[in-house]
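User: Here's a protein and a ligand (NAP). What would the complex look like?
Assistant: Let me lay out the input and then the predicted complex.
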Amino acid sequence: MLITGASRGIGAATARLAAQQGYALCLNYHQRADAANAVLEQVRGLGVTAIAVQADVADETQVLHMFEAIDREFGRLDVLVNNAGMLEQQMRLEQMDAARWTRVLGANVIGSFLCAREAIKRMSTRHGGRGGAIVNLSSVAARLGAPGEYIDYAAAKGAIDSMTLGLAKEVASEGIRVNAVRPGVIHTDIHAAGGEPDRVERVKASVPMGRGGQAEEIAEAILWLASEQASYTSGALLDVAGGR
Ligand code: NAP
């Protein structure tokens, strides 16, 4: 299983749960080698084979090198979790510039497309593979729009939803299932990048369950979609958002 953005938050929680279930793991990270190595030690402590690979998922050359490392170390790929994602400072759309949109769409959209492409080349029965599963991280922002905060990020997640729907149909007959998890507001570092580390506390009043979610609660949904238990599920957009 390749988990992009596995050094922190939802990706790290997914790595720990996957290790408990016995998956051999490639843990991707962008900048935080310290955090990635801590997760690597945790999952190896659970007895599984694992490597950590630095790559900016928005960079095609770096993504190709990451998949070459997977080919070398494991010789096959069964599951891709397209989890790496980011957002920038909260602001209105008319305050944003094109360079920001390039960064936000690059990391969230192009990154997922690049990893999906390389995964399909290895998984698809059309290319001699054994099939597999792709789980994309979208967000409830895709249907809420994130007004006043980050419409660009919400739109990027809307693109992930459309990619999930189209790709699920494109590769369904080739042994590959493609689904998305749409988390609500989850306790991770991502909100600090928007300039509001305590965002979960403010937003939780709008969550029917009255609380933010934990990364482990998202990991459970990701691991289910990746598993044989979800063998007839493809093209699903699974909201894990406390009823929001
Ligand atoms: P997080 O705690 O900020 O962690 C982000 C992870 O992504 C880190 O491992 C980071 O690596 C990695 N990353 C960021 N940009 C990258 C890039 N260009 N290339 C490779 N890796 C990159 O975020 P999170 O809250 O766990 O979010 C995980 C996913 O869930 C994202 O797709 C996010 O949009 C989605 N989501 C989160 C929430 C929420 O409330 N937290 C809600 C809905 C959806 P480094 O550690 O090296 O920087």
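Summary: The first strand starts at residue 2 and ends at 3.
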